[in-house]
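#lab-general

N.A. 3:47 PM
ok so I finally got the sequence cleaned up, no stray characters, all 232 residues accounted for. can someone with queue access submit it? mine expired

B.Y. 3:52 PM
send it over

N.A. 3:53 PM
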Amino acid sequence: MAVERELAIHCRGLIKTYGEGEAQVQALRGVDLDVGAGELLMLAGPSGCGKTTLISIFAGILDQDAGQCRVLGDDFQQMAPDARAHFRGRSIGFVFQSFHLLPALSVAENVALPLLINGMARKAALVRARDLLERVGLAARADALATQLSGGQKQRVAIARALIHEPKVIICDEPTSNLDHATGHQVMTILRQVALASQRAVLVVTHDARIYEFADRIAHMDDGTIVDVCVQ
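B.Y. 4:20 PM
back already:
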């Protein structure tokens, strides 16, 4: 890295295989990757190269078959299922390509969901949600339904929801693929300003070369391996 950083994600020799016999597919073939606190790292590569498998291991959704992965110093494979779910709910935020907002809830209620799931009182959670919506420029839409928003607005709500429980790792899966150029740049600017200012690690899976300028580093994957890491 160009700047020495505390490591949020540290992985060595990750191997993951699906299926058996002739149907066996090796999704990861010995992946080594570090992501620093305060860094925005992009993971790029063709469809089917292993990106989704890799971030699923980072998130504790999948287990690797071999190798080591530590997230914020902890190893998911050493955790019981309840402890793993608690760690993920407390320490990891997700921003999805398709937003995954609940249409029957208001914008503020959607943003507040992680706090409510973690046991915070509804009133306090909604106050926090409104404060964060103001930071992403959507305070005026707090009481609107998610279905009444544009694509760019929905993605900003999804970012607010990913940040509200103050996770130290944020994983974004194609966050700009459904957005036009200007809106995609606005979304990435928010990710840098809101997330990285608090020394969070942000990992962005993307095919969108238009947003590469926002990365500290870009890790290129192909056929289950990291083939190159470029410093921006």
